[in-house]
């Protein structure tokens, strides 16, 4: 048989057969005097087996183990590993679908679906056109779904309902064009640290590092989202929260 004939017989493409030759999965057949490969029935049997195994979801390296003459693993062992892997994937997909169902059934923040806990927090926040308040909400949405996020959102509720917080946002907005050594930075950072409810510190998972260390990828990305003076306020606030965590034995 020529390559096109065996490909049609087994139900694969000629390109796939050439790839199997290239990676050593399917032995090269001998060639006729005209240079064409001459495939035998044994080649077709092996190729059909390769096709069935790949359809089951085995990778080509696993297929090689199965079809190896001597050193390969038993087929039942490889299939058992595949079954366990599929079971894990099913569990992960099921969990993602359960979370998706909650999001679809829950409230929406602008154009983004949010968890009920975040929606409740945002609903308790007074309306404001503060740019930094809007940015803060976006950062909270980024946290949504993370470990301990619902507890943190619940602990932030008193801060969200405190009208004086709007004044803190206004002070932060006023630094949009200020320099990083502006004298308003230090007192604002201190006031922001003091405004964080103790319950928020208690809700931060104990396995997390204290605060967001300077130099960490997320901390640097977060600071880059602000104007220079505002970023300095946020940096000092993160350091202050970390100090409060350390002082609480965290």
Automatic annotation (TrEMBL):
Alphabetical list of PROSITE patterns matching this protein: HTH_MERR_2
Residue ranges of every copy of the HTH merR-type domain listed in the record: 1-69
SMART domains: HTH_MERR
Gene Ontology MF terms: DNA binding
Family annotation (InterPro entries): DNA-bd_dom_put_sf, MerR-type_HTH_dom, MerR_fam
Keywords assigned by UniProt, alphabetized: DNA-binding
Pfam families per UniProt: MerR_1
Protein name per Swiss-Prot or TrEMBL: DNA-binding transcriptional MerR regulator
